[in-house]
Specification:
Blueprint lengths: L11 H5 L3 H12 L4 H14 L5 H11 L3 E7 L7 E10 L4 E4 L15 E8 L3 E13 L4 E6 L20 E6 L11 E12 L12 H8 L3 E6 L10 E3 L6 E8 L7 H4 L4 E6 H11 L5
Length: about 290
């Protein structure tokens, strides 16, 4: 029997990259007709210990996630340009709802000029469709927003269980880091979960408190601290599990050293995300009868 056929599908490339002694051990076990599940587990353990990346798996998951990621912002028919891509969102439920960040939609619309919230679908600069969006719910404390769009549904992403996330996990997020400069081309970034921290940290003096900090103190919750560079356009980007593609959080802010412009010119490499359980809570409150 060809030795290659002894290995479970998809493991041959990893197997050939292992040291000779480990390959011989794998062949020995296979020759003794051990179960394929045992061999898969052993070889996966060796690959993990040697730091061999499963790039093909991540690449496949990226392709599953990207169709559900969209641009969000405003559309002004008389504007130059009319479309204003302000951040990222992702489809949920039946594909007619988009989750993003509330701070993107904090500015009032100019109704006299028929300005509207919009979801941008497509790729590049030429094949882009503008979908009118209605802001149906928001959680300003946790910086989450829920939009509804008409027309054909988008490919929805599934929400995962963010309570099971552990510090040290390797996650990914997909979005539009610097808005329309690169066109409607989503970028995917790797993010280590550095810490799960409270959003509010007590200060030494009351004079250091502002209205935003007071709101956080009144409704404390935890956020994900990510070891990753994110930019303003990443607001609303889904943070997803590389194994399943399930959304575990929503990027909403970055740590900025100095002036706000430093977020672009000198990013700190520290970003934050809202756990997906608060997205689920927003959906339950806004759409109590949704599946």
């Amino acid at each position: 029997m060809n030795r290659k056929s002894l290995l479970p599908p998809g493991l041959y490339r990893i197997y050939r990259g292992l040291p000779g002694s480990i390959r011989r051990l794998g062949v020995s076990w296979a020759s003794k007709r051990r179960t394929s599940s045992l061999l898969r587990a052993v070889l996966a353990l060796f690959a993990w210990g040697l730091g061999l990346p499963a790039l093909a798996d991540i690449a496949d998951t990226v392709q599953l996630v990207k169709p559900g990621v969209v641009g969000v912002g405003t559309f002004l028919p008389t504007g130059r340009p009319p479309a204003n891509l302000m951040g990222t969102g992702f489809a949920v439920l039946d594909g007619h709802y988009v989750v993003s960040c509330a701070h993107i939609f904090s500015k009032p619309l100019d109704s006299e000029k028929r300005e509207m919230y919009a979801v941008f679908v497509g790729r590049g600069r030429q094949q882009i469709s503008v979908r009118a969006a209605e802001l149906v719910a928001s959680d300003k404390v946790r910086d989450l927003a829920l939009l509804k769009i008409a027309g054909d549904p988008l490919p929805p992403l599934k929400l995962g269980d963010s309570d099971k996330v552990r510090e040290g996990w390797q996650l990914y997020f997909t979005g539009y880091p610097i808005g329309s400069i690169l066109g409607l081309n989503p970028s995917t970034h790797r993010a280590g979960l550095a810490a799960i921290i409270p959003v509010f940290t007590p200060v030494a003096a009351a004079a250091l408190l502002n209205s935003h900090a007071l709101k956080q103190a009144a409704s404390p919750y935890e956020v994900f601290e990510l070891d990753a560079v994110a930019y303003p356009g990443n607001s609303g980007s889904p943070v997803w599990n590389p194994d399943t593609g399930e959304v575990l959080g929503v990027v909403n802010s970055v740590y900025v050293r100095g002036a706000r412009e430093a977020a672009l010119s000198a990013p700190s490499g520290i970003s934050y995300a809202i756990p997906a359980k608060y997205v689920r809570r927003l959906l339950e409150q806004a759409l109590p009868h949704a599946p």
